[in-house]
Amino acid sequence: MNKETHVLERLPEGAAQDWTIPQDWDRYSQEDHNTWDTLFARQAKLLPGRASESYLRGLDVLKLSKPGIPDFEELSERLMKLTGWQVVAVPGLVPDAVFFDHMANRRFVAGNFIRRPDQLDYLQEPDVFHDVFGHVPMLADPVFADYLEAYGRGGLRALEHGSLKQLARLYWYTVEFGLVEEDAGLRIYGSGIVSSYSESRFALEDPSPNRIRFDMKRVMRTDYRIDDFQQNYFVIPGFEELLRQTVETDFAPLYAELATLPDIPIAEILPEDDVITHGTQAYAEAKAAG
Ligand code: HBI
Ligand code: FE
Q: Where does the record place the Biopterin-dependent aromatic amino acid hydroxylase family profile domain (predicted)?
């Protein structure tokens, strides 16, 4: 999931003008399907009681437990009926403008390859397990579906303002690594967490990371790491509130204001933060000490 590096620069041969490619479902080997099934079984056991109700409902209504790598056409048909979204295949990390344009039109781009059996726990580029298992269930939630479309439109505007860095942090701390406070307690919904065997427990249960109530401006100032577990998780009160703030925020003045404010170092807690867990940062410090 290292997004800073391997973004494709030129339209690959065989890709359409919108950078999509056929999923080519028939080309997956039995080993590929087995990898999906292994990853699926591992996560399915961990997620009840940890993942958001919306996420678990999406997994169920989209029938993602069916064995083997999902066929995007079949998946899109189900998703289209629920929220009007589709899943399209791309050959890797596509340019930002392409990524946002698909999103603004309710098309979620997904890698069509799957990690090798010796890479079950870590890989740099988003594969079909991260993209489909991690992201797509949330798109069956009508409110989250609207949020991601609004984000896509916001991304296109951020490109014009040169404020992509700030907006990308919003994506990171919600879509990829977000937590939500539900009646039953804290739950995970970020794709990078729900698709990770170790981070799905770390994000909720480990004393190391900070867990801070979501504030749009604060999040947009906060650095993040792409190489290891997060040191901060931001907690939304619900998806309605996330959508409301995203739609109601006038981003042009916000970007202008952000340009005058310093970035917030990764693990720093501010006096005005609404803190749920003041993390020990023991995990990150042990890693840094080698
Ligand atoms: N392309 N396929 C793909 N998947 C991503 O998550 C992605 C991308 N291109 C750009 C991008 N993400 C990020 O740079 C934006 O979130 C800012
Ligand atoms: Fe992702």
A: 1-290
Ligand nearest to the CA of 191: 2
- Least Cα distance to 192 among 16, 43, 6 occurs for 43
Pocket residue to mutate for ligand 1, from 8, 72, 88, 96, most atoms within 8 A of Cβ: 96
Cβ partners under 8 Å of residue 81, min gap 6: none
248 backbone φψ class: left, alpha, beta (φ>0; ψ -120 to 50):
alpha
Residue 3 has pLDDT above 90, yes or no: no
Structure tokens at 251: 């981003």
Complex ipTM value: 0.94
Query: Measured in angstroms, how far is the CA atom of residue 193 from the centroid of ligand 2?
Result: 10
Q: State both tokens at 271.
A: 């006096």
pLDDT digits (tens, 9 = 90+) for 188-244: 999 999 999 999 999 999 999 999 999 999 999 999 999 899 999 999 999 999 999
125 lines ligand 1 (CB under 6 A): no
Q: Was 102 annotated as part of a binding site?
A: no
Asked if residue 251 has pLDDT above 80, the reply is: yes
pLDDT band at 1 (very low <50, low <70, confident <90, very high): very low
Q: Residues lining ligand 2 (ion), CB within 5 A?
A: 191
Q: Which CATH superfamily, name and number, covers 25-288?
A: Aromatic amino acid hydroxylase (1.10.800.10)
The structure tokens 């437990």 sit at 65
The span from the CA of 105 to the CA of 150, in Å, is 10
CB 126 near ligand 1, within 6 Å? yes
- Predicted TM-score (pTM) of this structure: 0.95
Task: Write the single-letter amino acid at 191.
Answer: S
Q: Please work out whether the CB of residue 71 comes within 6 Å of at least one atom of ligand 1.
A: no
Say how many Å lie between the CA of residue 225 and the centre of ligand 1: 16
What are the extents of the domains in the chain? 25-288
